[in-house]
Structure prediction request, 339 residues.
Amino acid sequence: MLDRNTRLNYPRSTLDYPKDLFHLTIADAETSEGDPICVAFRAVPPPGASRIYVRWTPSSAERKRMQQENWSYSYLAVEPLVVTAHGNAILLQLALRFDFETTHAYFYVYTVRSAGRPPSLRRLPACDHRMASDSLCSSGLEHMLGLADIGLICHGDDEFVVTDLQLLPTDDDVDGAPLEAQLCMLRSCSPDQWTLTRPQIHWEKGQAEELSWWETDAVVPCGDSLCYVDFLRGILFADVLSERPELWYVRLPVRIPSGDPADREIGTRGCSNMFRNVCATEGGAVVRLVEVGTTTVFVSGCNSPVSSSFAINLWKLVTATMTWEESTMEEDELWDLQG
Prediction:
């Protein structure tokens, strides 16, 4: 298990990491301004949490450049974050935040030591592509801004692909497609160039309306594909390792809301990620849906419930037929598994 929150400039008492204590692997790189950055990875077997340690302080040259771009200096924060991970690669975002709004982000891929090679840290070039659409009043959507849309998949020991998928509903019935998609990709074999494609979306009859309200909640690597997941609807499988990627839609075995699922009062879609998740098991080859359902009984006049129980519902996607196999684990079964 990898902790998404990194440790910045830790430990503070020494310039060197305590390798004997933390068993770290370390790699160095530079920012676009030439500032040194050091990233260390501490691998811990389950149930412990593996962590990333980052040593980086923006230089005066970096601050001066921001000032020349008329960026406000009333607030500055440095926020390293683990975006995603797969295989022996970890995608990191290092962001400079001003006034809690404006962000300047760097992306790095940390590669864990493998096949006798030392760990490495590679800075990714900026992605200047935008998604233009007739449904947008602005100049377009920027890529690599929403972390939920960003994916990473490894291929072999040395190659990886970083992706960002933007999806927008169509204003009219363009070729019958409920969504228009734009996929931005960076391959490690061509690390200085982002490529842009508009993948075709495949879906079955009767699924167009539910796709029109799509919002990506998570990106999960599975086999040679990336699974873009909407916890309220389904999965878009993207074969990002192919030369011409396409998207295939598969429904989740859940009740799919009709129309816009956002709450009119608070403007959000709720917190389905608190009780529902999609993951890849069996070496990353099998997609599974996990959902926790609870039953709570209250009695009039009591502030606390008189009883409460839960069950874990599990579904396995059978790729041969693209259907779901269901199983259930009751609360007592789970507690019996404790060592």
In short: Helices lie at 19-22, 60-68, 208-211, 331-336. Confidence is low (pLDDT under 50) at residues 13-17, 71-75. The longest strand covers residues 159-174. Residues 60-68 form the longest helix (9 residues).
